[in-house]
Amino acid sequence: MGGFFVRKLAGAAGLAVQLQKLLPLLFHPLDARWKMGHFRPLLWTAIVANMILAAFYTSYLGDFAAAGADELPRIFIAVQTAESLVILFYLFSSRKIKKGPAVAMPDGKTPESVASRIVARTVGIVSGAISLIAGRDFFFPGQIIDFIPRDDIYLEWTGAFLHSPPEGTPEAEEHGLMTGLYIGDKFLAQLLGLNFLLLCLYKFVSSVLVKYGSDGSGQIKARMIWKAQALGNALILFLFRLFAPAAASASLDLRWHLMSLAYETFVLGLFGFC
Question: Is 223 in contact with 29 (CB distance < 8 Å)?
């Protein structure tokens, strides 16, 4: 069941990453203007995300080719690269940005302030914790983080001990010779971690790096990202809720995950849509 959860969650997180680029372009606010650079933070982050995903798929091309399944990954890499080149061409061909008129600063705000302190703090706490776990799943799959409660149960339930058993552990002695048979599971586990890291990247860019601006444009730039993030979070939250009973049967309590993700989703939706 845990492996099925990883596959479903990896798909949902991947969909959320792609929707992060698509939704703001199709349903952007009426006051968003291309000539005023409102889309630039989103587009620069999209290039970084595309190239990281393409590099990750490239690292597994040998395994895909050995299984005779490298055609679709090559198409994915080509599409991501082509999209990035088109976005990059636009960004460099339209470097002249027209700033809007200066606006009165709200209390406590300066042009260098973040768009929303509440969103920044929420993202820093919730997505910071998500980044820690996702970073481990991507860079060090199967490694137990001792200070996280029941982390070993999480790794066992998701099948990490099958494809990446920690050295010197009973799991390594039991499954060490069979790790090559679970390379597909390792790919999906790392893809899940990478997609979560990319979603957190969008959140950090919009909540920390995007500034309010003398014309207040930071709110417009950030809200486009927050809206798509709220919808992506809602999809991921639904899957967590769906698999919570199955995780509970394996002594893995997902209630804190659900509450934290639900709170972040609420904050992103509140400040993104209001």
Answer: yes
Place of tokens 């997609």: 195
Q: Which amino acid is at 252?
A: L
pTM above 0.85, yes or no: yes
Number of continuous H segments (helices) and E segments (strands) in the chain: 11, 0
Please report where in the chains the tokens 């709170």 appear, as a residue: 263
Contacts of 34 (CB under 8 A, 6+ apart): 94
pLDDT tens sequence across 13-63: 999 999 999 999 988 888 888 889 899 999 999 999 999 999 999 999 999
Helix, coil or strand: residue 187: helix
Structure tokens at 198: 């990319």
Give the other-Cβ count within 10 Å of 102's Cβ: 11
Distance CA 218, CA 68 (A): 47
